[in-house]
Amino acid sequence: MTDIDKKHAAQRDEIKLYFDKSFQSSIGYFAAIFALIALSRTSNALENFDVKSTVSISILLTNWLYFILISSCFFAIQKRVLYILCTGPSLDYYWEIFSDNPLNYSVWKSRTRLSWKLDSYFVVPIFFVIITITVFAVYIGWQSPNTYTRVTIFVLVLLHAIPAWMTYCMIRLGLECGRRVKEILKSSPTQDAASPVK
Description:
mainly alpha; about 75% helix; elongated
């Protein structure tokens, strides 16, 4: 293991940590959603809210916290990938190039980016679920005639702009990582498709 590999070991460990945290938070998120729905069917602790409103507001609040957490974890992962790409050759550096090199689509007889990058699209269902649950919770809660309920829901919807902005930053950071890889590949046109380490 080279010195740069040792330096990148810290980033590799941190990436693993953030992946673990995102997985754990996803399990906790769905457990919380199911628990809130189950609890709302047996009791209504808030005096001025009906049962559906309690569920709606609780889900929106949980959604907001989870959205922030998951966006932060993915941003942290992308930031460390960018650091690896900016600090020079190592096993992790070559891995990032290999995984994003179009020449490697043919390594396992794949000709499309979609199939080659399949392991990167696990975030799509996560964000799809977040958006779907948010819309559903807003729809259910907004039907309440209670003014307090509507104001609370409106404020929670506005607060979702924070994690939405974080997600936007995460996407931009991911695009920057892709741009860096293209620059590296452009400067090394002789790089072998199946063996990026020279």
